[in-house]
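I'd like us to work through together how a protein chain folds, taking it slowly. We need material for that, and I hope you will provide a protein of your own picking. Go ahead whenever you are ready, and we will take it from there:
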Amino acid sequence: MTDERRKTGDEDCSTVQASDLEPDSGDAPLGSEEVEGLDTQGRVRIHIHSRRKRLCDSDGVSGKAVIDGVVHAGILADDSPKYVKEVSYSQEKTTEKEETIIEIWQ
């Protein structure tokens, strides 16, 4: 990392370059197979259940990233209201493996 200094008014500001944490992986879906029994033409409901060792605030579960991943995998055509009717969230505390369970149904 490099540390650069620049002058802004009367104070010095330090700028640190960060690594590219989210490199561009392209726009093609990762999965090419359709999920059996899922009609991607109709509107679906999505439930995201998070099992964590430490619970987060109710708005701390990143549903946006989960749903974007489902679209990127080719399971859903889009995450717009045309395809997604409802999204719900739940969480539970666990002492075992942390995981996120995604349920999709019509």
